[in-house]
Amino acid sequence: MFLRHLSLVNYKNFDSKDLEFDPVINCLVGDNGVGKTNILDAIYHLCFGKSYFNPVSTQNIKHDTEFFMVDGEFEKEGRSEKIICSFKKGTKKVIKRNGKPYEKFSEHIGFLPLVIISPADRDLILEGSDTRRKFIDGVISQSDKAYLNNLIKYNKVLVQRNSLLKYFVANRTFERDTLSIYNEQLHGLGTEIHKKRLDFISSFVPIFKEQYQHISDKEEQIMLSYESQLEEGSLLELLEANIEKDRALQYTSVGIHKDDLNFTIADHPIKKFGSQGQQKSFLIALKLAQFHFIKEQASTTPILLLDDIFDKLDESRVSHIVGLVKNDNFGQIFISDTHAERTENVVKNIHQSYKIFTL
Ligand SMILES: Nc1ncnc2c1ncn2[C@@H]1O[C@H](COP(=O)(O)OP(=O)(O)OP(=O)(O)O)[C@@H](O)[C@H]1O
After folding, report:
1. Could you give the ipTM of this predicted complex?
2. Is 35 in contact with 329 (CB distance < 8 Å)?
3. Which protein residue's CA is at the shortest distance from atom 9 of ligand 1?
4. Which of 154-158, 168-172, 336-340 is predicted least confidently?
5. Same domain assignment for residues 109 and 180
6. What would the pLDDT profile of 24-47 be if each residue is shown by its tens digit?
7. Residues 321, 277 share a domain
């Protein structure tokens, strides 16, 4: 699968832009702030219906204009697929595949698998657990529609249960039976999600460790483990046991929405004890493992976006990553960098077709 053509209208810093891509390697080079990352983000938008960097849709519209449009022509399994993602202020975002709008964006997720490696990934280590849950959910959802649907349903029920807890306090009332209905729904959906997360972690960890060994020269004991309150008991039991606490807090304090991933090096949290280099290698290994996992599950090689990759790694490691496309037939890769020469040196050595775009 690859992206053949990209057209932008009023997308971030671009009025209009048309790019015809190479099926294998594409390099976007230029000074800071010219819009290299914005082009990668537009590609991300076509695959996920949203920005990787800025979730506020209005802020993805070029300043002082009213709408944006991102139009991409992909080739997938020998067929041309035209995806258009557009957004006008005050209306709902629209994604169309070959002229037909999707009713639910979730139907589009996984159709065009993509992995991005960016300096913004550091949030996975530095920020709260929701960032890491989004990561697991993002990886599983790209190859498992049922998981994504359960997750959407779980989040809806969770919002309803939280509203009910607030309603009880505001109206000085309490109805255990109504709450029990939500508990059962959360239990059913949450248990499924928990099981899939467990299965995912057990197949993902070996891939992740292998990727880390590839990019780190040293033997280091790194680990990624899954933490869930559901290890303590069934979700139904936990919800029932925490009813008084939830009434006081006015929100649901237990469930798979509290799950987390632990990242460690030599049994200590990498956030506090990992060097900058170790943290960078850890994040790249995480994303490369995502690439390999999705490739296996979805039987399509994901598009790989490498944003500012030299900010993270030296040339030999970048060569290793770019070399992935050499071994993975039909993979397409996009690289952004401020130094045209450095990028060209790396891609020339891969002996694959490539294009360099100077912005
Ligand atoms: N909604 C918007 N309207 C207009 N310009 C925008 C909008 N959002 C972002 N920009 C501009 O886009 C530019 C940043 O683009 P981008 O992050 O793609 O740069 P880059 O080439 O990747 O830079 P770097 O090499 O520093 O990573 C900034 O100048 C920013 O002001």
Report:
1. 0.96
2. no
3. 12
4. 336-340
5. no
6. 999 999 999 999 999 999 999 999
7. no
Which CATH number goes with the domain that contains 40? 3.40.50.300
Q: Which ligand 1 atom sits closest to the C-alpha of 62?
A: 3
Task: Tell me the CA distances in angstroms from 352 to 29, 224, 346, one per residue in order.
Answer: 18, 34, 11
Domain assignment of residue 271, given as a range? 125-299
Query: What is the layout of strands, in order, in the sheet containing 268-269?
Result: 222-227, 260-265, 268-269
339, with CB counted inside 10 A (0-12, 13-18, 19+), is exposed
Which of 13, 54, 334, 339 most suits a substitution to test ligand 1, by most atoms within 8 Å of the C-beta? 13
- Residues 288, 144, single domain; the answer is yes
pLDDT per residue over 122-152, tens digit each?
999 999 999 999 999 999 998 899 999 999 9
**Overall number of domains in the chain:** 2
Model confidence at 167: pLDDT above 80: yes
Site to probe by mutation for ligand 1, drawn from 6, 8, 12 as the one with most ligand atoms within 8 Å of Cβ, is 12
Is 119 within a domain? no
